[in-house]
Design goal:
This protein has helices at residues 2-36, 46-52; strands at residues 57-66, 72-77, 82-85, 94-95, 98-105, 117-128, 131-132. The chain has 138 residues and is an alpha+beta fold. The protein folds into 2 domains: 1-34; 52-132, Beta Barrel (OB fold (Dihydrolipoamide Acetyltransferase, E2P)), CATH 2.40.50. The strands form 2 sheets. It has a 5-stranded mixed beta barrel. The N and C termini lie far apart (69 Å).
Length: 138
């Protein structure tokens, strides 16, 4: 009986090891094939080009100091959308300040804040001053 259990255990281990190894090689060859394709071979249409353009948004929001992850500033729009400033000028970093702004979402960007959507500002207008911090946070 012990021999049967030992043989079954060895067979199970070998089966598990061989099953883990084969999909990776198929995946690697599929990745190599997809990486070798050149962009020139893919047909482009005017609709494809139009979809690539990032829309620029216009908002009004409140600059808010968030005390997480060492502290940072965020912007909460009137609709409640949380935007994480990537390039907001320091003169607007006032807790409670109300700003009108234009800009684009920063897609594909990772941050340590884990709060809001990364946002790149293109134009900012101060509507109402907020509290200025005595320390240089950001």
């Amino acid at each position: 009986m012990n021999n049967a259990k030992t043989i079954a255990l060895i067979f199970s281990c070998l089966l598990s090891i061989s099953a883990c190894g084969s999909p990776a090689s198929n995946r690697d060859s599929a990745q190599t094939e997809s990486n070798s394709a050149t962009p020139a071979t893919a047909p482009t249409t005017s609709t494809d080009q139009e979809q690539e353009v990032e829309p620029e948004y216009q908002y009004q929001g409140t600059v808010t100091y968030i005390g997480l992850e060492g502290g940072f500033y965020g912007v909460v729009t009137k609709s409640g959308k949380k935007l994480l400033p990537m390039n907001l000028d320091k003169k607007y970093l006032q807790d409670g300040a109300i700003i009108q702004f234009n800009g684009k979402l920063a897609k594909g960007m990772m941050t340590i804040q884990q709060w809001g959507t990364p946002f790149n500002f293109s134009e900012v207008k101060l509507v109402k001053r907020g509290k200025q911090s005595s320390s240089d946070i950001y």
